[in-house]
Amino acid sequence: MNLRLPWRLFASYTLVAVVGAAVSYLTVRLLAPRLFDRRMGMLGDGPQMMGRGPEVHAAFVSAVDTALVLGMLSSVVAAAVLAVLATRRLLRPLDAVRAATRQIAAGRYDAKVPAPSEPELAELASDVNALADALAATESRRTRLLGEVAHEMRTPLTSLDGYVEGMIDGVFTADEATLASLSAELRRLHRLADDLSDLSRTEERRLDLSPSDEDLAEIVRKTAARLAPQFQDAHVTLEVAAAPVLPVHVDPDRITQVLTNLLGNALLATPTGGTVTVRTRRSVGAEVDVTDSGVGLAADDVERVFERFYRAPGQLRRSAGSGIGLTIARGIARAHGGDVMAASAGPGTGATFTLYLPRRD
After folding, report:
1. C-beta of residue 163 within 8 angstroms of C-beta of residue 323
2. 140-203 in CATH: which number?
3. Rounded to an integer, what distance in angstroms lies between the CA atom of residue 298 and that of residue 314?
4. Where along the chain do the CATH 3.30.565.10 domains lie?
5. 236 DSSP β-pair partners
6. Which pTM was predicted?
7. Was domain 212-357 assigned CATH 3.30.565.10?
8. Mean pLDDT, contiguous 10-residue spans, the chain (361 residues)
9. Quick check: 47 and 3 in contact, CB under 8 A?
10. Cα distance between the two ends of the chain
11. CATH 1.10.287.130: which residues of the chain?
């Protein structure tokens, strides 16, 4: 039968006391009479001791036995009392941890464990509190994500619902233009679903990567060439300045996804007649700068643009996307040991997004 921890602690403390008392008893019981006899022999047989040696020896042994028994009982009682006090002192913070974890498991993430005086238990309490904070942040992100996804889906669904009801009521005809509008809204929903799937894998660190030795400059040139027609249609100049060779060990498809997102983001932010420049450079690692001459970013938005569904105020053209492309791009870069960063001198001055990756030497 498994005993609870308080009883095991109490039993262990008491057992230590009993063993110590038993060892003390045996040691004194065996050595004290011999030492007493030796001492009496050194004193010699005086007239007052003649014929009384055995009586003195027996009296001494009896006194020692009585003292040892009383000492053992006292030590066991004292040890039991101290064991109870020590057990309570040790278990009090553990009980607080248990109570807090139960509240956390029930969804009350504001539960905190007071830090005890013992360093080891204080570290345990700190870890539990950190876990509660992390779970609270995760739950907050999850709740916010659900609301943001519902908001993002509401617009295309409302549009689809309006078109369908209009065709049922005869307001719209099922001509090419109407069907093209329906198809555009459906593609928007499909793109949102794909982006959400990528976002989920990115945040859960479940990205499927197939890294190989690649030339980042070549990936940049191919990506820019593939997107060049979109820039031409928008009358935005795309300039590419790629280094001869930038060796990296990456998943080329995923890095292409990051570059496509950065270039698409720059295109949406740049007005007609503007310029987007892509430049690769060798630093501590391998870097790609995507610079646009568009609407720019306020200081408070430089980091917030990487938040899910965040769109900087006044940047209407950026709203054409799902709002999580930069979040996914940063997640992919970090999965490769790199990062994506943003910089801007302010609204109206354009912005630069930099992809950093470890270089393969």
Report:
1. no
2. 1.10.287.130
3. 11
4. 212-357
5. none
6. 0.56
7. yes
8. 59 68 66 60 51 62 66 69 71 79 82 76 82 81 72 76 82 78 79 74 72 92 91 92 88 91 89 92 90 87 79 52 77 90 88 92 70
9. no
10. 62
11. 140-203
